[in-house]
Amino acid sequence: MESISLSSSSFQSLLIPPKSLPDLSSSKVHSISMGKSWSGRSWSLRVRSEAVVDPSISPRVNSVKPSKTVAITDLATSLVQSGVPIIRLAAGEPDFDTPEAIAQAGMNAIRDGYTRYTPNAGTLEIRKAICHKLQEENGLEYTPDQIVVSNGAKQSIMQAVLAVCSPGDEVIIPAPYWVSYPEMARLADATPVILPTELSDNFLLKPENLASKLNEKSRLLILCSPSNPTGSVYPKELLEEIADIVREHPRLLVLSDEIYEHIIYHPAKHTSFASLPGMWERTFTVNGFSKAFAMTGWRLGYIAGPKHFVAACGKIQSQFTSGASSISQKAGLAALGLGYAGGETVSTMVKAFQERRDFLLKSFGELKGVKISKPQGAFYLFLDFSSYYGSEVEGFGVINGSDSLCRFLLEKAQVALVPGDAFGDDTCIRISYAASLPTLEAAVLKIKEAMSQLRSPVLA
Q1: Confidence category of residue 37, pLDDT binned at 50, 70, 90
Q2: Contact 306, 271 (CB under 8 A)
Q3: Cα angle 226, 354, 258; round to 5
Q4: Cβ burial 380-404 (10 Å sphere, 16+ → b, else e)
Q5: Are strands 253-257 and 283-288 parallel, antiparallel or unpaired?
Q6: What pLDDT is attached to residue 79?
Q7: How many C-beta neighbours within 10 Å does residue 113 have?
Q8: What confidence score (pLDDT) does residue 46 get?
Q9: Which residues touch 148 (CB under 8 Å, ≥6 apart)?
Q10: Are 109 and 103 in contact (CB under 8 A)?
């Protein structure tokens, strides 16, 4: 058979009845050819095409912003791998190794062949241990069927938001906030409602501001104490005032993120929101092992709450990831066995964190124009550098916000920090002091040297 090749444009000019042509409306034409039979009496038409792929992404996903802390941490890591000596103070990850007793429990689990699936909600033994911990340390009574163990506290929070929020519901989030809270609300088709707080109030939510924002759409209030990114700790008296307001709104639930509960500095004390009168029935208590026990890579957290709410979280998990790692659960069991609040092992780490905090407070207190709220927990310093906004640096440009300031410090000081706009407060930057004291000392010297190139327009 002889054949001739035709372009798409020449094909359009052929006098061929339209109904005899293939439907090419959703296809990309690669080539068109006509072939003549050996007898020379007939022609055949051949069209080679490929369906055009729809490149669209779900509007729900398009509405979500990527995590800036993860992005900056990944950038800093890639720079280090390429030979640039970046000091990384962006990630909220303790520099301590996982305590030996915990690591040994994980290794024993592997040696003993404890490497298979566990029940979706977690093994009975770890859920019993979590119940004991919550009763002894937090004054909260739960049964194992009111606990779901997940692949990190982050998963627990996401599942809680999905379990109770419907399209149009509002999630109330005090700012500064952990970067993931608003995006989790958006993934659930809910609307994040941000309530700004002030450095002068130690970034604590004012009850009257909360009351002014609540309505029939308000479904979930997220509280984090001790706080990421500010290190603020809610005193019991303030939580009681918030509980009085919550009690007036039947639809309103509370998610209490207590992942930093053991990293707290005297005289501050931790209070679980669910322990307040009338709050157990409407509170999700979320905690985990990553921060206090230096177990970030083990990916283990949990949620506790009324059975019907927690069962909904478990249902999501059963179709999402199934249960947490069997090995990590054995390690978590060992962590809970270290004693009240992690015993001496955790206490030693907290003392180191406090020493680092005090060093940074003194060091940055020497920088003119920097405003500081003294952290009472966690391992972050949230510093107000806004007096330097408007400064112009030759070879860099204008410092016009927290993002450009952090880019300036990454470039000039080779220190990776997180801009405050990621946490809902552009006046500040976040420094993680989950790094050794010598590392922090080196970082402060570099930051001060870089900042000496800036003139504070406010102070000038």
Answers
A1: low
A2: no
A3: 20
A4: bbbbbbbbbbbbebeeeeebebbbb
A5: parallel
A6: 83
A7: 8
A8: 67
A9: 120, 121, 122, 156, 159, 302, 303, 310, 313, 314, 317
A10: no
